[in-house]
Design brief:
With about 290 residues, this protein is an alpha/beta fold. It has one domain (about 5-285): TIM Barrel (Alpha-Beta Barrel), CATH 3.20.20.220. Helix content is about 50%, strand content about 15%. It contains 11 helices and 8 strands. It has helices spanning about 5-10, 25-40, 60-70, 85-95, 125-135, 155-170, 180-195, 210-220, 225-235, 240-260, 275-285, and strands at about 15-20, 45, 75-80, 100-105, 140-145, 170-175, 200-205, 265-270. An 8-stranded parallel β-barrel has the order 1-2-3-4-5-6-7-8, surrounded by 4 helices. Helix 4 (about 85-95) crosses helix 5 (about 125-135), helix 9 runs antiparallel to helix 10 (about 240-260) and helix 10 runs parallel beside helix 11 (about 275-285). The longest helix has 21 residues, at about 240-260. The radius of gyration is 18 Å and the shape is globular. The two termini are about 25 Å apart. The structure holds flavin-adenine dinucleotide. Flavin-adenine dinucleotide binds next to strand 3, helix 5, helix 6 and strand 6.
Length: about 290
């Protein structure tokens, strides 16, 4: 089923994001998490796609297992950098056979690409989206950046590019993680003014360390509100304290987003479901009544 059908009903949509594990041990852990996740009835789980192109079918394979074995609705990420046009056509045919009808189209990050694996049939996500749309039968999503994509010259220019993705066929958008809800709500105003009227699912991630927080600012250029920074500094080195603080921060953020009209939540889990599940448990009590 296309989860976008649920979005159309106005009911909140909850989702988790995973990446394909590399070892047997990590795979076993992920499947244990999947059993736990089922109890929270997520509307979908999404599976990232490495831009390396080294194992291009790992995403598809994991999506197939999560759907067939665990009954989870899945969204397969597809990237321009990992796949040629021919591979995309093969993947779509495989997804259709598995009755997977949700995809998220991304460019991928060049710095993730290992030597020799870079593909250039598609330069931007909008081009991939156009092909996915032409293939038919898929609910297609794209990424968006409330604090602008790091390479974009400005937020307005980035939103103009985002409009191209929606015009090409993106039916929903999922945001880059952010920690200041004002950025999300201001972004919604600007995208609406630009004529973008598809649901924008906010992406949230609980911060687990000072180093991780530094990476967010350095690589993703997202801003860290003072209250979050102070909490991370306060609890650095205390695992339990950090966990509690970061779940509380993200839960408060999530509740305010839902209250403010966000269509749901997309939780970046890094395959460690404990914090994401705690957040969803906190908000579901309120939001799903
Ligand atoms: P695009 O929409 O192509 O935009 C990239 C940049 O190019 C932007 O600055 C945009 O303004 C600009 N641009 C767009 N079109 C044009 C044009 N015609 N001319 C000039 N400039 C243009 N990465 C992975 O490798 N695998 C994943 O599974 C993955 N999942 C993600 C999930 C989410 C929800 C998000 C938010 C990101 C994800 N990423 C993933 C990261 C993503 O690949 C990077 O952020 C990447 O740098 C941009 O991808 P995009 O699809 O937004 O690119």
């Amino acid at each position: 089923m296309k989860f976008t059908e649920r979005l159309k009903t106005g009911k909140k949509v909850y989702s988790f994001e995973f990446y394909p594990p590399k070892t047997a041990e990590d795979t076993a852990k992920l499947f244990t998490n999947a059993v736990e996740l089922l109890k929270l009835s997520p509307d979908f789980v999404s599976v990232t796609n490495s831009s390396s192109g080294v194992t291009p079918y790992r995403t598809v394979a994991l999506c197939g297992v999560l759907k067939a074995q665990f009954g989870l609705e899945v969204v397969a990420h597809l990237t321009c950098l990992a796949h040629t046009r021919t591979e995309i056509a093969e993947i779509l045919s495989g997804l259709k056979k598995m009755e997977i009808t949700n995809v998220l189209a991304l460019r991928g990050d060049p710095h993730n690409v290992e030597a020799g694996a870079r593909r250039r049939d598609y330069n931007y996500a909008a081009q991939l989206i156009a092909d996915l749309k032409a293939a038919g039968g898929f609910a297609i999503g794209g990424a968006c950046y409330p604090e602008k994509h790091p390479e974009a010259p400005g937020l307005e220019a980035d939103i103009a590019r985002l409009k191209e993705k929606v015009d090409a066929g993106a039916e929903y958008l999922i945001t880059q993680l952010f920690f200041d809800n004002d950025c999300y709500f201001r972004f919604l105003e600007k995208t609406a003014a630009a004529g973008i009227n598809v649901p924008v699912l906010p992406g949230l991630m609980p911060v687990t360390s000072y180093k991780q927080m530094q990476n967010f600012t350095k690589l993703m250029k997202v801003c860290i509100p003072e209250a979050l920074r102070a909490g991370i500094e306060r609890w650095e080195g205390d695992k339990d304290g950090m966990f509690k603080f970061s779940v509380e921060y993200a839960s408060a953020q999530a509740e305010a987003l839902l209250k403010g009209g966000a269509p749901g939540l997309h939780l970046y889990t890094l395959n460690r479901s404990r914090a994401a599940m705690a957040i969803l448990k906190n908000v579901k009590g309120e939001a799903l009544k």
